[in-house]
Structures are given as structure tokens and as C-alpha cells.
Amino acid sequence: MPPGPAGAPTRLTGMTYSGEVRVGGPADVHELKDLMITKIAVGPMDNNAYLLRCRATDEQLLIDAAADAHALLGTVGDDGIASVVTTHRHPDHWQALAEVVAATGARTYAGREDAEGIPVATDVAVDDGDTVRVGQVRLTARHLVGHTPGSIALVYDDPHGHPHVFTGDCLFPGGVGNTRKDPEAFATLIRDVETKIFAPLPDETWVYPGHGNDTTLGAERPHLPEWHARGW
Q1: Which of 216, 145, 221, 186 is nearest to 4 (CA)?
Q2: Which residues is 153 bridged to in the sheet?
Q3: Which residues lie across from 176 on neighbouring strands?
Q4: How far apart are CA 155 and CA 166, in angstroms?
Q5: What is the C-alpha to C-alpha distance for residues 74 and 53, in angstroms, rounded to an integer?
Q6: 9 burial type by CB count under 10 A (0-12 exposed, 13-18 middle, 19+ buried)
Q7: Which pLDDT score is estimated for 11?
Q8: CB 217 within 8 A of CB 231
Q9: What is the spatial distance between Cα 179 and Cα 104, in angstroms, rounded to a whole number?
Q10: Sign of the dihedral defined by the CA atoms of residues 149, 127, 205, 107, in that order
Q11: What separation in angstroms does the CA of 10 have from each of 20, 63, 208, 209, 213?
């Protein structure tokens, strides 16, 4: 879930893809040279799901089978998916997982520390720095502790442009994910987000969160001191 009181959504302008989707509305497609990213909003908590398609092989990967299997499978289409990555154990991110896996036979991935909290067997337990592939495209998993023990983000370092990072519920426009007023959880989450996301990646990095609009690291970086000061 997003941080407590949400900051104002960041609108990204000047590009065909906006990342602004709504439940029941159309998906939005971000076309990169090697990868197509389709974003769709599903379910009562306005979850984002992301379908990644390797343009060289047409293999597909779904990030968060959150809800509404019918809508997700319609977005997947007849080509199916090779794998589903669940970013963390919270139920709003896996409500449709069993049905999607049953329909597609997809391999399941999740952070090692969260796998036991997901009621669909995890085929591949993911650790920090592991590679997750979709066709010829390589994604790097980053383990981010605090929102849950085993949350993972996926980083695509586009060789033709800036990086792209799928943050689940660990980073949003306006703050890190909800740590339920637990100072220790907040401290570990903001530490991991700073050291594993903000520190190695440039301002141009595009952020795809688990709920709401997209942002960039450059839009959020100036506010890190504010997040530290407020504690959420």
C-alpha cells in the first residue's frame, strides 16, 4: 500500500505513455526498443499489474496478478505468459494468482522471505541481485525490507535508454510504502530504497508502483530528507 497521507501524484508529461490508468479503463502501453510494458489497474484497491513482453521473442511476464483474472488474462492474450512475479505477500497483490497460473501454466516468482505468505506455491524464490528473465530481457531483483519482509523490486536497465524499476508497494510518488508507524520498519525500508534504488540509478529512472501513477527518481529524490523527517 502507498505511504500514509499520500503526496500529490506526479504527472509525467510530454510522452505518449502516461502511466495513468483506472480500474475498468484501458491499459496503457510503454513501448521500449526491446520491451513492451502494459500497465492495467485492477481490483477494489486500484492495484497496478504490469505485463512485460520481450520484443525479440514475444515471451511475456506478468508482475502482480493482483485481482480480476478475467481482465488480466484478456490483457495477456492468446500468447500466454511464461512467468508471474509477485512483488510481496499482501493479499491485494495475489488475489488472481491461482486462476492466472491455472490458465497459463506460468512459473511463479516471489521474494524468498515472502513466499510462505503467498497461498500459491512459489516455483522460484528470489534473492537480492537475482536475475529474472523475460525472453532476452534481463531484470534484476532488489530485496527491499520494511513494507513486508520479502518485498522485491525489479530493475530493467534499458541498454538503449534510462532504467525502469517496478517497485511494488515500496516506492510511490510522495514516499516509501506503508510501514504502519513502525519506526524500525520505516528505517529499513527507506535505507534499502535509498541504497538499492536511489543510489545506483539515475534521476531519469522511470518508477512503476503497485498503485497509482508512475513517477521518476528525479521527481522524488529532492524529497528524501522530508520523508526521513516525517518518518513515513
Answers
A1: 186
A2: 142
A3: 171
A4: 6
A5: 15
A6: middle
A7: 38
A8: no
A9: 34
A10: negative
A11: 10, 22, 12, 12, 7
Confidence band for 50, pLDDT divided at 50, 70 and 90: very high
DSSP string, 135-172: TTEEEEEEE--SSSTT-EEEEE--TTS--EEEEETSEE
Q: Is the pTM of this model over 0.90?
A: yes
CA 96 to chain centre: 16
Q: Cell numbers for 55, please give them.
A: 520484443
Provide the pLDDT for residue 174: 97
The three-state secondary structure class of 36 is strand
List of long-range contacts for 180-187, beta carbons under 8 Å, 24+ apart: 181/4, 181/232, 183/231, 185/146, 185/147, 186/146, 186/231, 186/232, 187/146
pLDDT for 2 equals 64
How many CA atoms lie less than 13 Å away from 166 in the CB half-sphere?
Answer: 24
- Strands 215-216 and 131-134 come out as unpaired
Helices assigned H by DSSP within the chain: 69-76, 97-104, 183-193, 217-220, 224-230
Three cell numbers, residue 143: 530485496
Q: For residue 11, how far is the Cα from the chain centroid?
A: 18
For 18-43, b/e burial (b = at least 16 CB within 10 A) is ebebeeeeebbebebebbbbbbbbbb
Q: How many residues does the chain have?
A: 232
Question: Which residue type does 140 have?
Answer: T
